Amino acid sequence: SFLLSDGSLDREKLASLVFSDASARKRLNGATHLPILVRMAAEILWLWVWERRSVVVVDMPLLYEIGFQRFTSPYTVVVACGVETQVARLQRRDGLTRAAARARVEAQMGIGEKVAMADYVLDNDEGVDMAGLERAVWDVFGAIARDSRVGAGWWVVGALGVLGAAGAVAAWTTWRVLTVARGWLFRCCGG
User: Fold this and answer.
1) Contact at 8 Å (CB) between 42 and 166?
2) Contacts of 163 (CB under 8 A, 6+ apart)
3) Which pLDDT does position 128 carry in this prediction?
4) What is the C-alpha separation between 186 and 3, in angstroms, rounded?
């Protein structure tokens, strides 16, 4: 089973499966990405319209893999580090073996591809001066905030399109999350 005794998801067991089986990862992504994007779009719209935030930062590891950069225009920012740094950080943070950490890194698009598509790149490799990185973050944020294309007025059309789609599929999304994902966990993965 992929559930712990308290009924919560056994994330470690699920991760072990999806990072060793590309087909299982694809099925899980298919069951979870739409509900996540719908929720994210609603939160972004809230920040733009009701809280009047001109810049919203979306921290999304799979931004390019799922094509969400279409909705983050006019800018994307990639915080980059080398593969070995990624592996070491995953090992430290999550207590993973080197092989498990490397499998997670290799399951994503390569950092070189992401850097090539980014408008701004921030270097966060091992040994980077954190004060310098913080200054670079604020410099990028300032440059983006000063751009006349950035702001609630420019973004609302795109966000409303996302939210409109979200509203239209809300019932379907709820059904999919509750039945398809659960069925996938229990039937397809031996849960």
Assistant:
1) yes
2) 41, 42, 45
3) 84
4) 10
